[in-house]
């Protein structure tokens, strides 16, 4: 694996890792929606809190330190061929922040008394996680690149 210019950490991540994590996230978010629609609103709320905490972990600690990334590197990647190319970790890390913002909004709105906030926030986040896990299209990564091109986010 190549290293960054300063030689300290890898220059990129295996792009299959975030897709693996998105698959787990999609399952948890779908379960949240099913629980909420099925009348188990307290369970749905707490599951959304757990997913939000995982998004926060990825957003603030970085995608390389996310628990799903650790599981992927230790248990899944050793059985796979090396990736064709590595991916910049900044877009998937930003995507974790977007997921955190969406799920946090659902939590806050639910606490303020909006009964549909949890299933709607979970459904929105599920849609993004599903796109990433099944089709390899990271909506948060796309948003990151769009904001870089618009010079809203500076990379250097």
Give an overview in words.
With 156 residues, the chain is mainly alpha-helical. The chain has one domain. It contains six helices and no strands. α1 (16-37) runs antiparallel to α2 and α2 (41-61) packs antiparallel against α4. The mean pLDDT is 92.
Q: Into which percentage range does the β-strand content fall?
A: under 5%
Q: What is the strand tally?
A: 0
Shape: globular
What does the average pLDDT come to?
A: 92
Helix-strand layout with pairing:
Blueprint lengths: L15 H22 L3 H21 L5 H10 L13 H22 L5 H19 L3 H11 L7
Helix pairs in contact: 1-2, 1-3, 1-5, 2-4, 4-5, 4-6
Please outline what is shown here:
With 156 residues, the protein is mainly α. The protein has one domain.
Characteristic terms for this protein:
single chain, 156 residues, mainly alpha
């Amino acid at each position: 694996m190549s290293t960054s210019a300063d030689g300290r950490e890898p220059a990129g991540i295996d792009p299959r890792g975030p897709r693996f994590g998105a698959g787990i996230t999609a399952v948890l978010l779908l379960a949240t929606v099913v629980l909420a629609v099925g009348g188990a609103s307290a369970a749905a709320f707490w599951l959304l809190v757990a997913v939000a905490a995982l998004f926060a972990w990825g957003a603030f600690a970085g995608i390389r330190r996310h628990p799903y990334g650790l599981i992927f590197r230790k248990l899944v990647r050793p059985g796979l061929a090396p990736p064709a190319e590595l991916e910049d970790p900044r877009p998937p890390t930003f995507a974790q922040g977007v997921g955190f913002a969406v799920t946090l909004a659902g939590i806050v709105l639910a606490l303020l008394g909006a009964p549909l906030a949890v299933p709607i926030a979970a459904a929105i986040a599920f849609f993004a996680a599903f796109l990433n896990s099944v089709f390899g299209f990271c909506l948060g990564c796309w948003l990151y690149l769009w904001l870089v091109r618009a010079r809203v986010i500076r990379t250097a």
